Write the structure tokens for this entry.
Amino acid sequence: MKLDVCSQVPASGDVVLFVFKGGEVPPGVTSHEFEGNRLSTLLWRENGKRTLYVGLGEDPRPDGKPLPLDLLRRAAGVGVKALRKLGVEEISLQATGFEAQLVGITEGALLADYVFEEFKPEASRRKTELKRLNIVVARDEVRAAEARVDEGKILARATNEVRAIGNLPGNIITPEALAERARNIARDTKITCRVWDMPKLQKEGFGGIIAVGKGSANPPVFIALEYMGGAKKDAPYVVVGKAITFDTGGISIKPAANMDEMKFDKMGGCAVLGIMRAAAELKLPINLVGLIASAENMPSAEAYRPGDIVTTYDGKTIEVLNTDAEGRIVLADALAYGRTTYKPKLMIDMATLTGAVLIALGHKRAGLFCNDEPLRKALQDAAESTGEPVWHLPMGDEFTDQIKSDVALAKNTGGREGGSATAASFLQMWAEDVRWAHLDIAGTAWTTKELPFLEKGATGYGVRIVLQALRTLAEAE
Ligand code: BES
Ligand code: MN
Ligand code: ZN
């Protein structure tokens, strides 16, 4: 696909036009047909050319309010997705006046064009591909626009790669297959990648990852990616991801309904892959480490069991009361490894950790838990512009009381009440005093409903918000 920035709408291809409420519409169009309401659309044909009007709602700027960055991202997505459904192969986005929003516009357009269809029969796949995307801007903005479009392209492609891996099922993406994806990304971007197999995990004491993974015929792995874009002596930032390639619940097995969705239990780890690729391609001036704890949670003769006591990388002990609360167990090892190996500036983990976060916050917002104010603020600020909203939730003694164990440092469940907060408070014991944030992405990592700007399946949630927060924090240093 060719992505081009130009200062005039080319003669070929169809057009996406953004209009505020009350803005200019084709002559004769009534307000019943199209008013410019937020993300509403009107398809207009004239002289063999199609124009898709996409409404932006009320223009907030006359009231002194900024234009929400995510609005243009979604509007571009709505436009591209609708035209692609009509089989359009060349699209021009009329972005004049929206040059400041071009990173988001490019992201929205490219995210909207991704579909997961590699296993569909030929006849039911898309018949056309998007061959050309033109982004039209004011003449004197072309140079600046190109840089923003390049950045949006890197971010969107990394996110689409995360979605493409995420949509693959458990029989294809095993922990070892995920490691192979990590190696490929490392090769592409010239960063380093190390993978711990079962013997190495055993030798080095990754008791949590081993416990969760040993019930599966597909052995667990731990993956470390290192990008050195900063000064050699600088401590790195560390991002950590839960990658359960399939979560049956193990011996505490899940009910059958919707269990297939647990192929998405690897999305935290997949997001780490996208973050590492994009950080390297954007040449961010920081040192960044990506850690992925990957296992398949299966019931079997070898599986770990309720009552087991597990010793993690740093010697701390966990009493397993429910083998379905496996994410925190593998993350304990990863957080301990990150904390002790790198003495990091800070750590951010992403995990599809609890069903409870879905009950609390639904499908749009991730749960944000954090022990550090500037880090919390950086993530909250980033969320607004990247369109990956978060909500800050509490941790601490009131929750750790629920996971006190009689036989180990902590139990791996604290009951149903405050389920996301007890899980986060559990993780905090392994982060210790490192500045740390945890994003519970169980509600946001995939969508079972098709959205106007996104296909169903993995969303790639986490790539943009974490990168944006890291950039802000690095600049403030
Ligand atoms: N991967 C699940 C969390 C999950 C559930 C994500 C549903 C998305 C949708 C996690 O491993 C899990 O099973 N958590 C349990 C914890 C409980 C046993 C304390 C849960 O949320 O029910
Ligand atoms: Mn589970
Ligand atoms: Zn899980």
Observations:
- The mean pLDDT is 98.
